Amino acid sequence: SKARLAHIGGQVVGIINTKGNSLDCKSASKAAKFVRFCDAFSIPVITFVNCPGFESLGSAAKLTSAYAEATTVKISVVTGKAIGSAYIALAGTGANADVVYALPDAVISPVNVEAAAFIMDPKSMKVPVARQKEVADKFASENLSAFNAAQNGYVDGITDESELRQTLISALDMLSGKRVSTLAKKHSTI
Questions:
Q1: What's the CATH class of domain 2-106+145-174?
Q2: CA 118 to CA 139: how far, in whole Å?
């Protein structure tokens, strides 16, 4: 993953971009530190999610905790695959995101694609092992699209890549007055 500061619409934002691979411990730890840094200075965090999961549960817990505790503006954009623990930690309700957008070709699932296919369509369990990937891919294209996620309330909107910058500027403007009061504490437990 990459973590950078940037300007969008004249406002400083923190951007986290997952690259499409499973997040390893080092990348997740770096992202968690960056989220905490941005939160300390009330810098909005924009997360571009294209990640099928985490390589270790410890790193997933650390990153999920950082997102959940952060009170700054958090916007997630699903640009590719947001599957399983990666969806929950970076773009789901566990991430405590204020707004979640998706590109039209995104795949969004709170569980592994193969597991979702076999849970939701029991007939697919009778398919030979050689064809299970094909069946899972077909299920994903029909049921795990950004449009289905929007229809079920998992994402707040679908935006084209050409309109993404303006969508983010509008979201930042809408959330500019966000204030969250929490109980006083010095440090988290993770």
A1: alpha beta
A2: 9
pTM given for the model:
0.87
The 8-class DSSP code of residue 105 comes to T
- β-partners of residue 101 are 77, 157
Q: How far is CA 152 from the centre of its chain?
A: 16
Contact 57, 78 (CB under 8 A): no
Determine the residue type at 189: T
> Rounded to an integer, what distance in angstroms lies between the CA atom of residue 165 and that of residue 54?
28
Q: pLDDT tens, 78-102?
A: 999 888 888 888 888 777 899 999 9
**For residue 2, what are the contacts with CB-CB under 8 A and spacing of at least 6?**
15, 16, 17, 19
| Domain boundaries for CATH 3.90.226.10 within the chain | 2-106+145-174
Q: pLDDT tens digit string along 124-165?
A: 777 777 787 888 888 888 888 899 989 988 899 999 999 999
- Cβ atoms of 108 and 149 within 8 Å: the answer is yes
Please give, one letter per residue, the 3-state secondary structure of 36-53.
HHHHHCCCCEEEEEEECC
